[in-house]
Write a structure and sequence with these properties.
The protein is mainly β. 5% of the residues lie in helices and 39% in strands. The protein has 1 helix and 18 strands. The protein has a 5-stranded antiparallel beta sheet, with no helix packed on it. The two termini are 29 Å apart.
Length: 196
């Protein structure tokens, strides 16, 4: 594995050597602060790095997608687990390369370098969306939706709201996650949308 620090001023030369084409990143250009590799762009932030497998490495990330380096799979540099669920509807604007999805949709996040807007795939489309519209789904977790409105202690959950089931049903209730908050919810109020 070859690793390149995107903070290194020599990165453009090193990447040019590895990918075999010119890398543009001049201070006067509108793309300064990004490493333009032709078809795709590597958005960079302080401390970012890019790992490129050696020829003898055959295994790719399970979250492979189109590469910013060309047509080969992308090595996901900023998202450890890239499976997310939409917790609210989002109607993007196609001219701005934004996705459109409904609550409960499955998304694969391909770039989470920015705090507010991420890039990902949903329903065969690729584009940007607000990070606040999704929740991470870990292996073994189930995506659930409330059948009806229910009040649990001081928290009201609404019909159609998406939650993540964390464990098995016990005494008629299941542990669920809403963002960072975990609560126990009666199983009779939930239906499974999909699982990992």
């Amino acid at each position: 594995m070859k690793s390149f620090s995107l903070d290194n001023p020599n990165s453009a030369e090193l990447l040019q050597h590895v990918v075999g084409r010119r890398v543009r990143n001049s201070p006067g250009s509108p793309t300064h602060g990004r490493m333009d590799l032709g078809r795709g762009r590597l958005h960079r932030a302080k401390g970012d790095s890019l790992d490129i497998p050696d020829d003898n490495e055959k295994s790719l990330s399970s979250a492979s997608s189109a590469s910013p380096l060309g047509g080969s799979p992308k090595y996901n540099r900023s998202v450890a687990s890239s499976l997310y669920v939409a917790v609210k509807d989002f109607k993007g604007r196609p001219r701005r390369d934004e996705l459109e999805f409904c609550s409960g949709s499955r998304l694969i996040v391909t770039d989470a370098a920015e705090n507010d807007w991420w890039r990902g795939k949903c329903n065969g489309q690729v584009g940007f969306f607000p990070a606040s519209c999704v929740l991470k789904v870990n292996p073994g977790e189930k995506v659930m939706q409330l059948k009806n409105t229910v009040t649990l202690n001081d928290l009201q959950l609404f019909a159609g709201q998406v939650v993540i089931q964390l464990g098995d049903e016990r005494d008629g209730a299941v542990p669920v996650r809403l963002g960072k908050r975990e609560i126990s919810c009666p199983a009779r109020h939930l239906r499974e949308l999909w699982s990992t």
